[in-house]
Specification:
By secondary structure, the protein is mainly α. The chain is about 65% helix and about 5% strand.
């Protein structure tokens, strides 16, 4: 394709202008989570609503549709990267033009306020403080789904924005099978972990030492701190302001260094993906992550398949002891056992590899029921608590350990949670393929050498951006579509469970 073609160049320029606005919104959101004075909330909500509306109007202008149509009519090579940009611009334009700008602005304004309401509700463990905000966001999401259109469930219209092509009915088939298999693995895995006390690593870990160790590990993985940083927040996340500015966040406990460490390993996986996208394509689909399910595959791969592998602590134990001298009383295998201990827990971000997906399956079903009008927001805590008890055997006594623990609903992100489990499945397939194609990879990981693995991920995932839809990208990278087989095989192997 000739990128000098006028309409294509105009689309590039418009897309990059919108990316500048989106980056400003990301920075304002990051600031709201890490340092904004409480009294600034109302003004921040207006800022985000204004910027969201401006970006929406800029992209849905009639001339943009004309430029896209001109590119489609030009007969460009369908296999070219530029054609992929046009394809995704068409998809984004068609979705955006179905949403009124006033709805977009209202959504941004309400979720900015809801985020702070959730934080207060979580601190006090009082769902009633957050309930009216969630009801407003649920109503707005239903209105968005109606505008976007759907064949079976309003959930599909929202899910498609996070994981293009995914549908609730198809996910439910995969998730139901996964839930059954996890049930067979959980008991034996818990028995294998029974000899490792839950408080084995409890101690005194100064925050400064945690920050230094986390930075050292993330840097070794390949995260570029000349183009990124780490800050503290209530709920960890990764934020990309623009090319050369990727920000990780975590939270700390002075009695447990793994609380912040594994959060950083997770967020660093997201950051590595963002830093690996083609910088010259910033603002275009080719410079954008393929989907949240692909994004989550990167974080879960580095957190679990690298960070919880025995080779990780074989290498990092002596280094960790320099930061935390109290760890000298443990052997590397004891650290490995501690961070792989299997036992149901209330908090998703603290859950083990076996039970993690049960948290996602619960949220998926609740989101579908709320959007389809089968579950009122007022009944959410009871529905959560009852189902969680059936899935895990744990009785929720505090909203902060139940339906208030995650920030996503306060952001209006309904349809988001399934991508976490898709990420788990994709991560296992990617790691299995990387090992098969690089027989010496495990030996490198045992030495704390991560360059080869990162280079493989750069080649198979990062450099493509959104050139391929997520299902095709995984098929190309691993030789098979996303499925549960590799993930379940990994769990059975790790915890000594026969198939």
């Amino acid at each position: 394709m000739n990128t000098s073609f006028g309409p294509y160049r105009k689309l590039q320029k418009r897309a990059r202008q919108i990316a500048l606005v989106a980056g400003a919104s990301e920075l304002l959101g990051w600031d709201a989570e890490t340092g904004m004075p409480p009294a600034g909330l109302a003004f921040r909500a207006e800022q985000l609503a204004f910027l969201g509306g401006q970006a929406h109007r800029s992209w849905t202008a009639g001339v943009v549709g004309g430029w896209i149509k001109a590119c489609e009519d030009a007969g460009f090579d369908p296999a070219s990267p530029e054609a992929a940009n046009v394809r995704e611009w068409r998809r984004a334009y068609d979705r955006a033009t179905k949403l009124p700008a006033a709805l977009v602005e209202k959504f941004e304004r309400i979720r900015a306020v809801a985020r702070e309401a959730w934080r207060k509700a979580r601190e006090r463990s009082e769902f009633a403080l957050f309930r009216p905000h969630l009801e407003k966001l649920l109503d707005l999401n239903r209105r968005k789904a109606d505008c976007l259109g759907f064949a079976e469930s309003p959930y599909d219209a929202l899910l498609d924005g996070y994981e293009p092509g995914a549908r609730a009915a198809r996910l439910r088939v995969v998730f139901d099978s996964l839930k059954a298999e996890i049930g067979l693995i959980l008991g034996p895995a818990m028995e294998r972990s029974a000899g490792t006390p839950s408080d084995l690593l409890q101690g005194n870990y100064p925050l400064a030492a945690q920050m230094a160790f986390n930075r050292e590990v993330a840097g070794a993985f390949g995260f570029d701190f000349s183009a990124g940083r780490i800050d503290a927040t209530t709920h960890p996340f990764c934020c990309t302001v623009g090319a050369g500015d990727c920000r990780l966040t975590t939270r700390y406990r002075e009695n447990d260094f793994t609380y912040s460490l594994y959060s950083i390993l997770h967020e660093a996986g997201h950051g590595l993906y963002e830093q690996g996208l083609p910088a010259e394509q910033f603002g275009t689909p080719l410079g954008t992550a393929a989907s949240l399910g692909i994004h989550e595959s990167q974080s879960r791969l580095w957190e679990n398949h690298v960070g919880r592998d025995p080779s990780f602590w074989e290498h990092w134990h002596p280094i960790a002891c320099r930061h935390f001298p109290g760890l000298e009383r443990f052997r590397p295998e004891q650290l490995t056992a501690a961070v792989n201990r299997v036992a149901p827990t209330f908090i998703r971000t603290e859950s083990d590899q076996v039970t993690y997906d049960l948290h996602i399956l619960l949220r998926f079903e609740i989101e579908v029921e709320m959007l389809e009008g089968r579950l009122a927001v007022a009944d959410l805590p009871a529905r959560w608590n009852d189902t969680f008890a059936r899935l895990t055997g744990l009785k929720v006594s505090r909203d902060s350990e139940g339906c208030l623990q995650d920030i996503h609903w306060s952001l209006g992100d309904l349809g988001y949670f399934p991508t976490y489990t898709l990420g788990n499945l994709n991560a296992a397939q990617l790691m299995a393929r990387a090992r098969a194609e690089q027989p010496g990879m495990d030996a490198s990981l045992a030495k704390g050498e991560y360059t080869a693995l990162l280079a493989w991920l750069r080649d198979r995932i990062h450099r493509h951006g959104l050139r391929y839809p997520p299902d095709e990208l995984i098929q190309r990278a691993t030789g098979e579509p996303t499925g549960a087989a590799a993930h379940l095989a990994c769990l059975r192997r790790k915890f000594g469970v026969s198939s």
